[in-house]
Amino acid sequence: MMIKTLSGKVAIVTGGSRGIGAAIALRLAESGADIAITYASRADSAEAVAQQIRAAGQRALAIKADSADAAAVRSAVDQAAAAFGRLDILVNNAGIFTGGTVEQVTLEDFDHIIAANLRGAFVASQAAAAHMGEGGRIVSIGSNLVGRVGRAGIGLYVMSKAALTGLSQAMARDLGPRGITVNIVHPGPTDTDMNPATTERADQARAAMAIPKYGEPGQIAGLVAWLASPEAQYATGGTYTIDGGTNA
Prior knowledge:
By secondary structure, this protein is α/β, with parallel strands linked by helices. It is 42% helix and 14% strand.
């Protein structure tokens, strides 16, 4: 039986209706936290995750909020805190991918990925920090591509995650005096519906790994759960790469 290290805590996971976000939401619930998740369009998937959280014995709330819509993101955080009476943990997981070389992408592409992957995390963090006290946790999901850009055509995505890394480190300084930790997790190739482990590109990715296999969402969730736990109270401003040794 899993120890309830987060009993009595409340977490919000943005983009929690599928993939890594869903795994994080469920792992935090198994650790005893009540969970709010946000989703952009897949209400059925979000409600399915919420039902799994309730089955684990925790309260759950699914809130529609596109990460590129600053007002919706701020409202979602405030709704979660109001519904559960407190807010202890924020996981900035929501994001998008836009492919294309520097000659191909547009200014609109640039603005949209910054809005979704960086501004959304900033707004959520700012809103969450207003509700958090001593022991608050903010964890953002980045990408191991920040450390090693392995192919062409991913510049906008890498840029947004690199900026998110800098933001996380800066917020660790800002919020540390209040006892709130801020960290970022950089997953490598992880088997989800957006990045399946069964494609030709996946075979190429495995060739670059020290452990030649795709990660599982639950493995990313386990690291996030540790960062959210009391054991990680002295860990802040950190970047944690979990990518099977791709960047080694």
